[in-house]
Each structure stands twice: as structure tokens, then as C-alpha cells.
Records
---
Amino acid sequence: MENYDKKKSKRAYLYWLLICLSACVLIIALLLHVPARFNPLKIIGNKKFVSPYLTNELLPALYNGSQSGGPFDLIITEDGVNDIIARSGWPRDFGRLNISSAMVFFSPGRIELMGTVTLSGVDSVVAVAVSPQIDPQGLLNLKVAKVSVGAVNITPFAGLIIAEICPARFSKAAVDGKNIGAEIFASLLNNKPFNPVFKIHDRKIRLTNLSIEENKLTARLLPITP
């Protein structure tokens, strides 16, 4: 009887060990999962050249609109942004993290940034989804809707990921509110709204509305009279 109990106990131990190992393998597989839609643009030729979408379309539209004196719409395409991102110089180091490639997705009410992140020699695809909102006072809040690593939702730990990815200099500047980059950082990290006023050359413009559709973002901008 004693031998039978020992064999039974050993089988139970092996059974639970197998379950634990299977669970570990599953978790690792989920963390290392690469979404099928993650396909960063590969630039053929010299990718150091500035994006033609940025220089020939986006900046001229932004500059001309800022000279109009009245509100105007700036349409930003997903393909255009991904061309800019692809030519932005990769890989990049952010603290202990290294990002080797990235791309953006526009979907109704949401902007999602996805990139290959290397931490301690392990590559994972990290996705950060943001749902921008402008409140009745005209303040913009970049509310983080979801953060995932591979196929694992880690939204409760979003602040830790954002704190690592955002430039370290914004950490202190965010406290002092010294620049727009710091305000964006604070909004992402602390769900803190800010005044969406941006400087274009010698002029300032205010973001008054934001509409995000599939593959397209439309920003309603208002030049601020000096």
C-alpha cells in the first residue's frame, strides 16, 4: 500500500510538473508571438533620405494652413506616417530597451504604435494603443487604451513600458511642464490632459478636433493670431 501511495504521489508530481512546463511554454510563445499585420515598411535604397510624404505633402499642407488665418483640416494617412517612421533611423535605444523597427495603425478612434523591442537579448513585439480625447475645455488627453507584448495584454503595466520608451529627459521635464514633449509624456504616463498648442516655424496652431478612421487621421487645426 505504501509503495502504491508513493507511485501515485510521484505520478501526481509529474502530472503537475508537466502542466507547469506546458503553461510556461505557452506564456513564452504568447509573449514572443508576432502579429500577422506587423509588417514594417522596408525602404529600398538610401533610407536616410527624408520621407517625400513629409516634405512634399504633410509639411506644405501644415505650413499653408497655418498661414490661412482660419481653421483648416490636416489629413494624415497611415501609409504616409509609416514611410516617415521607416526613414527615422533604426534601431534606437530607450534606456534598457532597444527598438529595431516600428509602424503605426489608424483605426476608428484609436492610434496604435507597434514595434520590435529587445530587452535582455529577447525580441518581442510591443503594441501601444492610444485613444486621443479632447475635453470640453479644449485639452487633449492621450489616453492609453491597451498595451500588449506579443499576444499578452499587459495594460496594467503600461506606465512601466511608456516610462522606458519615452526619452528619459521628459521624466523631469514632465514635472516642470517645460515643453510639449514633456506634456505628451505626462499625458501618456499619468493620463494628464494638456493644452494642444504646437509651434510651426514662427506661428502657433491649436488642435481643436481629432477624427481617426481606418488608415486615416484628420486633425482640425486653428492658427493662433500673435
---
Amino acid sequence: MFPIRDHNPSLSTPYVTWALILVNVGMYLLTLPTGESYGALWAELALYPDLVTHGVALHGLITHMFLHAGLMHLAGNMLFLWVFGDNLEDEMGRGRFLAFYLIGGLAAAAAQIVADPMSGIPMVGASGAIAGVMGGYLLLYPKARVDVFFFFLIFFKIIPIRAWIVLGIWFVLQVFNGSSTPQTDGGTAYWAHAGGFIAGFLMAIPTWLRLGGPAFWARTHGHPPHPEAEYARSHIPVVRRRPRR
């Protein structure tokens, strides 16, 4: 299951969100693997917790946010950024949103380093920063509808679910997987996701207070403060299977 869109249209053009997506795509193309491994530039710009712990290669704290370990890794992260990023950019403004995004990524990296400070496994991906965006979204629009694509074997369906359920389940899964997966195994940086999410939630509090805080929630009841988007059903005809004779 993964979100494909929300019913929370932004009121301005999300230039920073678009720019972040373009930079991530550009960096992916620039660092495509040669043969079975990634090149020197990818290795140079990745984040290595053991090096950062010893005060070396600190640039990786920023540059790792723009690298990805595969096309699906990139596509999944950019989809999440596209779904949730435009609304925070709309409320915060472009400059604040960019700072929010980068600080969220730094907090995510810090959480992963604290979880396994001596790890030599390279850490890459925008997911920690995007987790921050998701945490901020949860605070501001907990009852926004999010269309979630469910796929199981040959069954698939798009179901609108409230943001607090989608994001809450996602966060709980990160904590559970982070607690149950040995850090030495590599793979997904679950603690980076959890740390970025918490940081994003906390960093969005000033925006929430500026909008009215509890009064904002009382006024909107957790919904977006403007009419929600309604998507038309597909006009593609459904072809039904004929029964066997």
C-alpha cells in the first residue's frame, strides 16, 4: 500500500517541491551504477555514520539526501514528496519549507547515526527529509483524505483514508521495524525515517500556532482549510470475465 495523491490542493505553485524532485532525479541520472556497483561520485557523496562520528566526510549529512539506490527507491520517495510536500510549502512559504526539508533530513541522519554510530554502511536517500514533511503534514491536516493504492497479488484498489491513519501506521511500522531489525543488516534506515518524522512534526508547531493552534483545529476539525479536491471516476469501461461453459 502506498499513497498516490491527497484531496488537499495547494493554493500556490509548489516550485520548491518541483525543484527538489528535479534535483533528486538529476542526481540519480548523474550517479547511475556502472555495471553492478555505483560509481565514485555516489560513494563520495553518501553518508557514512562511522566517518561522521569521527568528524570526517561531514558533507554526507547533506549530500546523501539527493542520492538513491535504485529507480524504485527514487520513484517511491518522489511520489511521497509530491503528495505531501506542496501543502507544507503552501503554508510555510518557499524559503521556510526548503529549510524545513533540509533540517528534517539532518535530523533523520542524526537519528540513524545515534542508532548505529559505528556503521560503515553508506546511507542514501531523501526518505528521512520526506518523513519530516509527512510529520508536519500530520500536524496540520490530520483528517485530509489520502488516496491509497492497495495491491495484493492480483487484487488492487484505490481507497481514500484519513491522513492520520496512513501516516500513523507508517510511523509505527518504522519504529517496529527499526526495533526488530539488526542495524548491521543494512537495508532500510528505519530510525532515520522515525527521527525525521518526529522532527518534522515538532518543526511544524510554529506554523500550526501561527495558523491559530487549537483554534485552527477547532475551525477546520483537522481537515484542509479549503475545499477538498474531488477526483472524477475513470470512464474506462470495465471488462468483465465471461463465465466458463
